[in-house]
Amino acid sequence: MLAKPILLVGAGALGSAILKGMRVAGHVAPQDVIILDLTPGEEAQKYAGLGARLNPGPEVWSEAWTVILAVKPQSWRGAAQILSGNLNTGATLVSVMAGVRTDDLSAVFAPLSVARVMPTTGVATGKGVASLFSGDGKALQAASDLFAPMASTVVLDHEGLIDAATAVSGSGPAYVYAFASALESAGLATGLTPADAKTLARATLISAVNLLDATGEEPEDLIRKVASPGGTTEAALKVLRKEGKGLDELIKAAVLAAQKRSQELG
Ligand SMILES: NC(=O)C1=CN([C@@H]2O[C@H](COP(=O)(O)OP(=O)(O)OC[C@H]3O[C@@H](n4cnc5c(N)ncnc54)[C@H](OP(=O)(O)O)[C@@H]3O)[C@@H](O)[C@H]2O)C=CC1
Ligand SMILES: O=C(O)[C@@H]1CCC=N1
């Protein structure tokens, strides 16, 4: 059972996605949410209109049994200073920040139990992805109760793997959007109108992903079903999968760069 109320600290891009996801999944009522944000955006305001408490005084923060820390890794110590001494000592802290280690969080927030989660912004639709880690069973359960209704969850065996999950999954949606943007630009180069290039690039991406999901087939098998021998797809794949210089190498280099950055952020 998810312990409520929930205190969300930081309602930016990800915090807002989490708010939307809780609204879509319906497992947390707005009345059970307390939001702290320096410049609350549209979703935080909407939540306030639905009954959430927005930027109340410190006397309210200690009501929360689950605290989500969703500020930038660079600003968490400042946020912690403001929060410290005003939280319920029996609460669970769920950090969604890249890079910031459990030991550092515990050193500041003890005796709160700590879990780390690496979600995607896709939680906003109730269909995100979230990688979970905690050495504390109660905190891991809290993180799972919070995210499982709005994400496919993976429990990681050790904390170091959060950097890997961040590189593959947390940052991953941006790689997909970069591909969508590149396909649209390439469509313009073929002579399509901007409107048609946009529609065809997006709809093709979405329908291909739907098929991957619906069939459960391996990507390589699906590629074989598109690429006729001696056909157009094969011509494109020769460029896309050029030995030593193709998409596989590029994606691997990108993911390793993200993993390294995640390791540095702590
Ligand atoms: N965006 C993503 O896809 C993902 C992000 N993450 C992690 O989530 C965290 C947030 O990222 P993101 O949402 O993109 O960043 P944003 O900058 O969009 O959101 C952070 C929010 O926190 C607010 N904030 C800063 N300090 C405080 C404070 N002391 N008290 C209350 N609110 C505060 C900021 O306000 P202001 O703007 O006024 O400073 C801002 O609205 C990061 O740690 C990131 O690593 C993890 C997975 C995915
Ligand atoms: O770019 C970032 O640092 C954050 C973490 C994963 C996605 N966004």
UniProtKB/TrEMBL annotation:
Biological classification of the source: Bacteria, Pseudomonadati, Pseudomonadota, Alphaproteobacteria, Caulobacterales
Keywords: Amino-acid biosynthesis, Cytoplasm, NADP, Oxidoreductase, Proline biosynthesis
Coarse class of the protein's main subcellular location: cytoplasm
Record carries keyword Amino-acid biosynthesis: yes
Listed EC numbers: 1.5.1.2
Provenance organism: Asticcacaulis aquaticus
Family, similarity comment: Belongs to the pyrroline-5-carboxylate reductase family.
Database matches in Pfam families: F420_oxidored, P5CR_dimer
NCBIfam families per UniProt: proC (TIGR00112)
Name of the protein this chain belongs to: Pyrroline-5-carboxylate reductase
Swiss-Prot/TrEMBL catalytic activity: L-proline + NADP(+) = (S)-1-pyrroline-5-carboxylate + NADPH + 2 H(+); L-proline + NAD(+) = (S)-1-pyrroline-5-carboxylate + NADH + 2 H(+)
Gene label: proC
